[in-house]
Hints:
The chain has 94 residues and is of the alpha+beta class. The chain has one domain (3-81). The chain is 39% helix and 17% strand. It is built from four helices and three strands, in the order H-E-H-H-E-H-E. Strands 1-2-3 form a three-stranded antiparallel sheet, with helices on both faces. The longest helix is centred in the middle third of the chain and has 14 residues, at 37-50. The chain is globular and about 45 Å long.
Amino acid sequence: xxxxxxxxxxxxxxxxxxxxxxxxxxxxxxxxxxxxxxxxxxxxxxxxxxxxxxxxxxxxxxxxxxxxxxxxxxxxxxxxxxxxxxxxxxxxxx
Length: 94
């Protein structure tokens, strides 16, 4: 998805922060990340070091993006990423 679409989906998903997802982890942040795995890995390394998702995303604004709900406690404390990809709601035709 485009950066604009990802921003809109992130805003619409902010209510999930503080909830527990179906996998049993607590959602502590919503991140926009590159969809491509290698770029996603680079983004996450930057995010672990800086804790600033916006600055880590600047190189990927024109890339295909996805939106994730994450538990940053495990990421920060154990370098383990628990995440779920947030997908836009399908638009139903009338």
